């Protein structure tokens, strides 16, 4: 338990490094980088300790700080939930962040960038926010750190604020994700209002539940019909399941924004304006991962809502395919990676939606590694290329930067899903889960799964294609520019992180080789075991966050069932074979088109489709149009209305009064005879009035 | 004895004549005279009803009224005099520098 | 305190009258005297003695019946004059305003000839006002009223070479003459209908329905008990209302006011719009509360419900005065119109009466309180105008631009006056207006309350225009202020201090006013 | 005694500053105002540690902190007294007032360069009235202070304001005064209908609560009519759509320190009064009218935010966003839930700090660049990094960034109103609509920041654009720290607020 006592330090250490870098960074060597490295390194060690403790079967879910005590009302508290899922995520975040910090020494310090304290402060806060999000034991705390993550992305994407592009991209990133967070916030408020708690897992003391969690309450309401205590249902006039679906979808809004799912993915490619290490951090471990992690975190809540599951699966599948097609035609190395990120998170969503909880977490893990690797590799290339990111100006870097090449290749194979690299195992499992649940589940949900599966499968081919198009254009063939012929060498601080990640990208998939496990019967699906926990008792019983529990819910409530069209093992092998085959097909297609010494553009062959793809299906255009073509004119019109009508009425009242005044004063004509006349008239009128009233006449 | 209504009619008539003068004449002096007529209409009432009621209050008031009328004329003439000096006219409608 | 002889009750009036006689005497000895300090000194001493004696009497309990622990009410000349609390209250107003005005006039007239006449006329008019406060009969009231009016006609036209002043004097005089003729005729009709002029006698006649007479100072029914002809009485009352309306500058007898206030020397404008108006109101309050009791009038029926008349007049006066003031170009004329508007507010004192005739003493005390506060804030405002005229600052709003930079103390005082006039709680004006408002709501007179609110809102706009000019605008032309006249400054600052002190001290004022009104 | 000391010291200080030479007036005034600020912080501490459980000043007047009562006036049977005291609602507002005044005075050192002694004197005079407004427990006393705020404000805008200051000043002055009069009339209609003998607020609250058999005017119950009139009167001050049009003009024209006070404290007078009068004294009527009132609040939120989107002037943007923020307060108040009303009150404090911070930051930029137009400048971050840094922090505070006070306030309001019984089935919908404000606010603030603060440095000006002076940035930093402190630990204020709110919620109305 001692590890848990120090767990808050995992979050606080990077936060301290933020403060140190911000206020003392310019007086420190390396502009505060060392503080960040120390802090994330410390956090990494503590995370490992926590993970080991969790591996020992212990978990932790306690409140640590009372934010709002609440008088005769809800208490709002911060707490830590440390279970296998969050322990795993802590490891990922700390590791990536640590490596990114080191890499930044090469990418930022060695390039003599200004504003380093600000940079490292941003990284520190970013890491701290993400870690806070990961360990949050309730939805409110999660939301708060989720928002802080958004702030940090704004600060870091807009790091080069003296140029025009980065501030704009930063604004877009924050704004688009804020739009998603709007729904998330409604969801958070709604869940608190509905259940009176935002806990992800019940808090227990001495075996007694002292604070129930909302997924458990929801479960009781849907399965056991315990809805008396949920007053909100009467207010909204819906059935429990329908209302929970609404809430779940609202929360999903935030997920779609942060994890860059369709249609809120548009911020992510723009976010490439930030420094490349930041991109690595955002894509691999922090911001984008937050969305998917959130769904996994409160998976029990989604598992009871088939509609929400279908939406998640479809959004994920569609995004996977959609983003992959856009990645086909990009010319800049980071853009390709950006779209691949969107696509890969689509797979995770697909997995979550289709009941593949393990698959999603698995893909999250492997993706974190290989995507960080690819970005850092790209960063290395960018250093070498004097910050020219256009792949058509590269070529032939393979010989000049071997370390970068081989590690990048490792990452690319993982991304493309080539056996035995990490991405193959996880992506295969995602597709497999979608497939078997699609066949097994009755009704619309099953159809949705199959549709999502189809889209995900198709995306595998595109993934292989664009990944190796990138590899060939960047590293193979002849150098197409002077800088590519004479690239700037990179130092250990770049190569070191690449090497670590390159190794991991090749091997991390072994933690859950499900096909192998199935075939051999060996218990080597470690991740499955890790997240499943003991089948009876232990932490899954206390926290209700175990895989077994989720599968029960999926089966009992959403009726997600497995189906094997070809029998269990053949289906598994067929699925793996198809996806591998498609991935290889993509790789080969790329090779055939771009592998030569002097590759040429083939995009023109796509005709009109090229234009559409280059413009990203006009997604940006319509969203910009919504902002500047609709919202802004409406605002202008309202402003006119305000100035003209609302203020006009106010000014009108005063004008009318003053006009009345200017008329009334005309009575005073200056002629004393008129005065006498009016005086007499007044008297006569009074006389007449009272004469009639009093009956004098 | 002449009925009281007759006096009332007489005084009302005198009052109205005075009022008519005020409304129609522009010469300040005639204006002043018209006011005197109105005041005297009141005096008629006082004297007549003093007799009617058999007490002297009315008559006393009439005496006061005459004295005050005289004082008023004195002030009035003075003002009309300075009016003439400033506007070279005793037309009450000439002095209209202040209005609205 | 030993029982004083009853004539001592008139001490305030006597002090003022004596001062005016001394001034006249000095004038006849040395007609061309320009010994302003002496003349102004006599006037100030006279008015301060009057003020002191009036305040002393109020505190001493004069006018409060001995049964209630007071000194009793001095009744003089067979009931023609009574010195009750209300009389003393108004004597305080008149004496304070007079003191301020003569103090300010010290600087204002020092360049002019006929100074002794000026001060003598002011003091005579003030004497008339104090007498009017105590008048208990239509006869004395009429005489006192003329004593107020005649000197003031002359005062308005005091600057004989000033066309505006003369024109103002003429208009004031002509309208005044017509109005006093109307009043006299009205009095004659009341006399015709009731046979008496003393207020209590008229009240007896109305309540008993028979013509009265006075024998040896006591009111008796006339032999044969002839009935009061109600229609004649009604016309008479209406014409008395007319006479009162003139003095208080209420619609439709207000036409003289804007011109007279604008054309007259500014201290005189202040004198007329504060003291003279107060004198008109004391007559109105006394006549209508004592002589024409609304309860009896309603009970006997047929004559006139004068409350309705005052409601009409009050609303019309408020609206016409304030709306016309809103768009004026000259500060003084704006104040003149606002003075008309304030007459409308005070008329609520006679208008906020319930259908059964209740609430009169409450509303009258509200009107009295407002008049007292108004006496300071309005006089102060006009004296500030006098100061501006003294400096040769123009009359228009623009001419006041940036004055706050050169004369911050005076302008601060003016700001207090103006906001107090508008009814902001920076001066007593807020409380007195609230008191009036309370009076309207007390009897459920919604229309009066609404008119009060609307006009207060509007008045804030035009008062703040002056503040804006003084403090906010930049000075347009060259202007140099080279002297800071002692007398004017003392008067202006004094008035401002009193206006401000009436915020915490309003309680005393309202209590005395309420007591005075209840004793009627 | 404490409150009287605050008032007396500040008033005396105002007098001293009026007489001080212009050169020293600023520093003198700031020094003098630090005294009431420190005293109120001490009082706050005393309250926090000793009066933790004190109830509402209007509903449980027996045990009110720092109370003092002295008879003053008796008007026709109405007893008026000098009666002051503080509870958990007014204590934070009082502290906000005194602290913000001191900071605003410091921030005035740079921009105010003429007639300083008058400026600082008037600021202190205004502080006197503001202290009075939040501590008075007698209606008349309260109203005297309430109106007393307007006169210094009128002059402060009018004399030291921008090009259209005259129009703005008189509009502000007349508009808010008309509103006060309407409120006044509405309140007193009720006072006279209930035979009150005292104008002490607790007495009024009790009388109104027990009022029965009230007359109807034009078919409307007098209680409802009075409620509407009072709401109108206070809503102008808040301001609430469509009674807001004085605010952008006043804000834009007012000099920075005055804008700070206007947005930071003066607007809160309106919501404070709404809470005290409409929602405490007339709680039953408020519950009945909850849905229309909530709609007014929600419309204000969206309308203000949309208008802010259409502006180019930084100050105007913040001004309109204030309308938006105050809409949340209305929404929270009508909810009649612990977090709704508490959150609304907390939002008063929070918005006071954040909007003050925003206006101050804009002011610091304006002092340097002499323009506030979004299109006229870009890349200021290059030249004034600390100012811009704080500006960005403030803007995110305004957008409701967690761990800053704005988020706490808004979240609590939403939490309180989402299932408010008073709003019935409309509660979630209205709350969700109001929440959309957080998207729009991000839109216009981010847009404005991108255009002005970031990008290549460019501005057409003859002035030297460089870092701001220390005394310009220091108040910003203090405010930012307060914003973060309240965001991290809302209970520094929220606990006492809730304790004082709960008696209001316990009042009848079936809650």
Polypeptide structure, described:
Chain D: One of its GO terms (molecular function) is ubiquinone binding. The complex is a heterotetramer of chains A (697), B (100), C (520) and D (511). Chain A has 697 residues and is mainly alpha-helical. Chain A has 31 helices and 4 strands. In chain A, the strands form 2 sheets. Chain A has a two-stranded antiparallel sheet. In chain A, strands 3-4 form a two-stranded antiparallel sheet. In chain A, strand 3 and strand 4 (208-211) form a beta hairpin. The radius of gyration of chain A is 31 Å and the shape is globular. Chain B contains 3 helices and no strands. Chain B has helices at 4-24, 28-53, 57-87. Chain B is elongated and about 50 Å long. The mean pLDDT of chain B is 89. In chain C, 72% of the residues lie in helices and 2% in strands. Chain C has helices spanning 11-29, 36-60, 85-108, 115-134, 138-156, 163-194, 199-208, 230-248, 256-263, 266-291, 294-300, 306-326, 331-351, 360-391, 403-406, 408-422, 429-442, 446-472, 486-519; strands spanning 75-76, 81-82, 212-215, 218-221. In chain C, helix 2 runs antiparallel to helix 3 (85-108) and helix 10 packs parallel to helix 13. Chain C is globular, with a radius of gyration of 22 Å. The model of chain C has no long low-confidence stretch (mean pLDDT 88). With 511 residues, chain D is mainly alpha-helical. Chain D is 71% helix and 5% strand. At the C-D interface, helix 14, helix 16, helix 17, helix 18 and helix 19 of C face strand 1, helix 5 and helix 6 of D.
């Amino acid at each position: 338990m001692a590890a848990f006592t120090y767990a808050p330090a995992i979050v606080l250490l990077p936060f301290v490094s933020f403060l140190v870098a911000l206020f003392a960074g310019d007086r420190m060597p390396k502009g505060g980088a060392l503080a960040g490295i120390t802090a994330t390194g410390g956090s990494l060690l503590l995370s490992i300790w926590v993970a080991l403790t969790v591996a020992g079967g212990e978990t932790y879910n306690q409140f640590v700080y009372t934010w709002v005590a609440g008088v005769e009302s809800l208490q709002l508290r911060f707490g830590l939930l440390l279970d296998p899922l969050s322990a795993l995520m802590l490891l990922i975040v700390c590791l990536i962040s640590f490596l990114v910090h080191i890499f930044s020494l090469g990418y930022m310090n060695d390039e003599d960038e200004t504003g380093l304290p600000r940079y490292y402060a941003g990284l520190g806060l970013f890491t701290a926010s993400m870690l806070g999000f990961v360990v949050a034991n309730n939805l409110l705390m999660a939301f708060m750190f989720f928002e802080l993550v958004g702030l940090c992305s704004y600060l870091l994407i807009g790091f080069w604020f003296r140029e025009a592009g980065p501030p704009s991209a930063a604004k877009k990133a924050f704004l688009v994700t804020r739009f998603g967070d709007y729904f998330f916030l409604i969801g958070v408020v709604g869940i608190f209002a509905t259940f009176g708690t935002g806990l992800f897992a019940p808090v227990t003391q001495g075996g007694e539940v002292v604070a129930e969690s909302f997924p458990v309450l929801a479960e009781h309401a849907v399965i056991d019909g315990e809805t008396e205590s949920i007053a909100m249902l009467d207010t909204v006039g819906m059935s429990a399941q329908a209302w929970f679906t609404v809430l779940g979808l609202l929360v999903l809004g935030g997920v779609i924004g942060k994890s860059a799912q369709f249609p809120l993915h548009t911020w992510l490619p723009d976010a490439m304006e930030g420094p490349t290490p930041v991109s690595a951090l955002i894509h691999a471990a922090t911001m984008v991962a937050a969305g998917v992690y959130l769904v996994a975190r409160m998976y029990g809540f989604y598992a009871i809502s088939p509609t929400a599951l279908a939406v998640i699966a479809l959004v994920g599948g569609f995004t996977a395919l959609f983003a992959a097609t856009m990645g086909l035609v990009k010319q800049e190395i980071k853009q390709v990676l950006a779209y691949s990120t969107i696509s890969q998170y689509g797979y995770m969503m697909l997995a979550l939606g289709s009941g593949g909880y393990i698959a999603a977490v698995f893909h999250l893990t492997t993706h974190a590694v290989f995507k960080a690797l690819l970005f850092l590799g790209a960063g290395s290339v960018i250093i070498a290329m004097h910050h020219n990111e256009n792949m058509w100006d590269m070529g032939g870097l393979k010989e000049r930067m071997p370390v970068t090449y081989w590690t990048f290749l490792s990452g690319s194979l993982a991304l493309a899903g080539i056996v035995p690299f990490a991405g193959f195992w996880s992506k295969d499992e995602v597709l497999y889960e979608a497939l078997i649940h699609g066949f097994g589940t009755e009704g619309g949900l099953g159809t949705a799964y199959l549709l999502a599966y189809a889209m995900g499968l198709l995306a595998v081919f595109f993934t292989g294609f664009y990944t190796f198009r990138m590899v060939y254009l960047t590293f193979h063939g002849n150098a197409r520019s002077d800088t590519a012929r004479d690239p700037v060498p990179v130092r250990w601080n770049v190569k070191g992180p690449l090497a670590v990640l390159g190794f991991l990208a090749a091997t991390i998939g072994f933690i859950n080789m499900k096909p192998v496990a199935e075939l051999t019967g060996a218990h080597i699906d470690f991740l499955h075991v890790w997240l499943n926990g003991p089948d009876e008792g232990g932490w899954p019983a206390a926290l209700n966050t175990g895989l077994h529990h989720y599968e029960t819910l999926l089966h009992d409530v959403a009726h997600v069932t497995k189906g094997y069209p070809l029998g269990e093992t053949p289906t598994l092998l067929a699925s793996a074979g198809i996806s591998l085959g498609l991935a290889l097909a993509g790789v080969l297609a790329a090779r055939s088109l771009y592998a030569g010494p002097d590759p040429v553009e083939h995009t023109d062959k796509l005709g009109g489709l090229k234009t559409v793809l280059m413009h990203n299906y006009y997604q940006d255009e319509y969203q910009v149009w919504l902002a500047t073509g609709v919202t802004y004119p409406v605002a202008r019109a309202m402003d006119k209305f305000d100035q003209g009508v609302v203020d006009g009425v106010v000014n009108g009242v005063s004008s009318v009064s003053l006009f009345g005044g200017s008329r009334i004063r005309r009575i005073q004509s200056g002629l004393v005879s008129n005065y006498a006349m009016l005086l007499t008239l007044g008297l006569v009128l009074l006389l007449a009035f009272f004469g009639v009233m009093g009956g004098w006449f | 004895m002449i009925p009281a209504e007759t006096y009332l009619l007489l005084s009302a008539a005198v009052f109205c004549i005075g009022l008519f003068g005020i409304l129609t004449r522009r010469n300040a002096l005639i204006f002043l005279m018209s006011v005197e007529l109105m005041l005297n209409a009141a005096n008629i009432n006082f004297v007549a009803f003093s007799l009617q009621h058999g007490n002297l209050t009315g008559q006393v008031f009439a005496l006061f009224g005459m004295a005050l009328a005289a004082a008023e004329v004195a002030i009035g003439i003075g003002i009309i005099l300075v009016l003439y000096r400033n506007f070279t006219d005793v037309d009450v409608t000439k002095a209209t520098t202040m209005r609205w | 305190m030993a029982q004083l002889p009853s004539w001592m009750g008139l001490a305030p009036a006597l002090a003022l009258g004596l001062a005016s006689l001394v001034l006249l005497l000095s004038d006849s000895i040395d007609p061309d005297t320009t010994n302003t300090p002496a003349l102004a000194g006599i006037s100030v001493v006279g008015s301060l003695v009057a003020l002191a004696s009036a305040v002393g009497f109020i505190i001493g309990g004069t006018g409060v019946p001995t049964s209630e622990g007071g000194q009793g009410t001095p009744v003089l000349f067979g009931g023609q004059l009574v010195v009750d609390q209300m009389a003393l209250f108004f004597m305080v107003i008149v004496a304070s305003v007079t003191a301020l005005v003569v103090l300010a006039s010290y600087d204002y007239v020092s360049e002019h000839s006929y100074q002794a006449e000026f001060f003598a006329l002011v003091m005579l008019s003030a004497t008339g006002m104090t007498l009017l406060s105590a008048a208990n009969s239509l006869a004395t009231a009429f005489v006192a009223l003329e004593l107020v009016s005649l000197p003031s006609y002359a005062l308005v036209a005091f600057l004989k070479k000033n066309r505006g002043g003369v024109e103002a004097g003429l208009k004031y005089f002509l309208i005044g003459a017509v109005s006093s003729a109307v009043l006299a005729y009205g009095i004659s009709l009341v006399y015709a209908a009731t046979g008496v002029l003393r207020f209590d006698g008229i009240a007896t006649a109305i309540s008993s329905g028979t013509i009265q007479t006075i024998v040896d100072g006591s009111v008796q029914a006339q032999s044969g008990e002839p009935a009061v002809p109600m229609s004649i009485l009604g016309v008479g009352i209406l014409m008395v209302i007319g006479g009162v309306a003139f003095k208080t500058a209420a619609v439709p007898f207000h036409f003289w006011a804007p011109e007279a206030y604008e054309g007259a020397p500014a201290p005189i404008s202040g004198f007329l719009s504060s003291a003279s108006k107060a004198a008109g109101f004391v007559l109105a309050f006394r006549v209508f509360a004592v002589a024409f009791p609304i309860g009896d009038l309603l009970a006997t029926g047929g004559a006139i419900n004068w409350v309705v008349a005052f409601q009409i007049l009050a609303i019309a006066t408020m609206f016409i005065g304030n709306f016309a003031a809103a768009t004026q170009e000259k500060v003084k004329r704006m104040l003149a119109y606002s003075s008309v508007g304030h007459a409308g507010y005070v008329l609520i004192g006679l208008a906020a009466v319930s259908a059964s005739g209740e609430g009169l003493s409450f509303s009258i005390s509200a009107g009295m309180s407002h008049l007292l506060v108004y006496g300071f804030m309005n006089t102060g405002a006009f004296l500030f105008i006098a100061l501006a005229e003294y400096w040769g600052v123009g009359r228009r709003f623009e001419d006041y631009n940036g004055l706050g930079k050169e004369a911050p103390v005076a302008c601060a005082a003016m700001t207090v006056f103006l906001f107090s006039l508008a009814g902001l709680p920076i001066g007593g004006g807020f409380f007195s207006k609230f008191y009036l408002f309370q009076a309207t709501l007390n009897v459920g007179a919604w229309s009066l309350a609404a008119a009060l609110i609307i006009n207060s809102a509007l008045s804030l706009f035009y008062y703040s225009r002056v503040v804006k000019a003084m403090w906010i605008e930049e000075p347009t032309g060259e202007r140099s202020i080279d002297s800071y006249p002692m007398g004017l400054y003392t008067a202006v600052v004094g008035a401002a201090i009193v206006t401000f002190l009436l915020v915490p001290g309003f309680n005393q004022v309202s209590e005395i006013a309420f007591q005075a009104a209840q004793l009627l | 005694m404490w409150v009287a000391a605050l008032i007396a010291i500040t008033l005396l200080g105002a007098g001293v500053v009026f007489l001080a030479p212009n050169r020293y007036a600023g520093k003198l005034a700031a020094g003098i105002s630090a005294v009431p600020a420190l005293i109120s912080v001490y009082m706050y501490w005393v309250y926090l540690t000793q009066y933790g459980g004190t109830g509402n000043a209007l509903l449980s007047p027996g045990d009110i902190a720092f109370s003092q009562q002295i008879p003053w006036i008796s008007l026709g049977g109405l007893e008026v007294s000098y009666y002051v005291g503080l509870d958990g609602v007014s204590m934070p507002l009082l502290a906000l007032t005194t602290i913000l005044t001191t900071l605003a005075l410091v921030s005035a050192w740079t921009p105010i360069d003429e007639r300083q002694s008058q400026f600082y004197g008037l600021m202190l005079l205004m502080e006197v009235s503001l202290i009075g407004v939040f501590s008075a427990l007698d209606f008349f006393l309260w109203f005297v202070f309430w109106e007393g705020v307007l006169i210094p404000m009128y002059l402060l805008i009018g004399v030291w304001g921008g090009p259209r200051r005259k129009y703005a000043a008189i509009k502000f002055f007349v508009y808010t005064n008309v509103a006060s009069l309407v409120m006044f009339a509405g309140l007193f209609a009720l006072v006279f209908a209930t035979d009150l003998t005292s104008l002490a607020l607790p007495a009024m609250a009790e009388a109104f609560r027990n009022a029965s058999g009230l007359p109807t005017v034009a078919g409307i119950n007098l209680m409802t009519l009075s409620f509407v009139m009072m709401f109108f009167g206070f809503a102008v001050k808040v301001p609430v759509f469509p009674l807001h049009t004085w605010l952008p003009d006043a804000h834009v024209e007012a000099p920075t320190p005055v804008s700070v006070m206007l947005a930071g404290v003066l607007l809160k007078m309106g919501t404070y009064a709404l809470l005290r009068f409409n929602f405490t004294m007339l709680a039953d009527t408020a519950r009945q009218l909850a849905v229309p009132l909530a709609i007014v609040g929600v419309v204000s939120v969206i309308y203000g935010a949309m208008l802010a989107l259409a502006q180019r002037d930084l100050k105007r943007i913040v001004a309109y966003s204030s309308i938006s923020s105050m809409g949340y307060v209305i929404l929270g108040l009508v909810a009649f839930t612990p977090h709704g009303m508490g959150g609304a009150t907390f939002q008063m404090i929070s918005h006071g700090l954040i909007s003050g911070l925003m206006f101050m930051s804009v002011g610091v930029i304006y002092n340097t660049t002499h323009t506030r137009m979004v299109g006229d400048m870009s890349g200021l971050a290059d030249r004034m990094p600390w100012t811009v840094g704080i500006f960005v922090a403030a803007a995110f505070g305004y957008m409701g960034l967690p761990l800053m006070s704005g988020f706490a306030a808004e979240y609590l309001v939403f939490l309180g109103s989402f299932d408010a019984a008073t709003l019935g089935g409309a509660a979630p919908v209205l709350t969700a609509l109001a929440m959309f404000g957080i998207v729009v606010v991000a839109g216009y603030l981010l847009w404005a920041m991108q255009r002005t603060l970031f990008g290549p440095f460019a501005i057409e000006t003859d002035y030297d654009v460089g870092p701001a002076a220390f005394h310009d940035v220091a108040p910003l930093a203090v405010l930012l720290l307060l914003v973060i402190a309240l965001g991290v630990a809302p209970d520094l204020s929220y606990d006492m607020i809730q304790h004082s709110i709960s008696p209001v919620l316990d009042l009848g109305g079936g809650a």
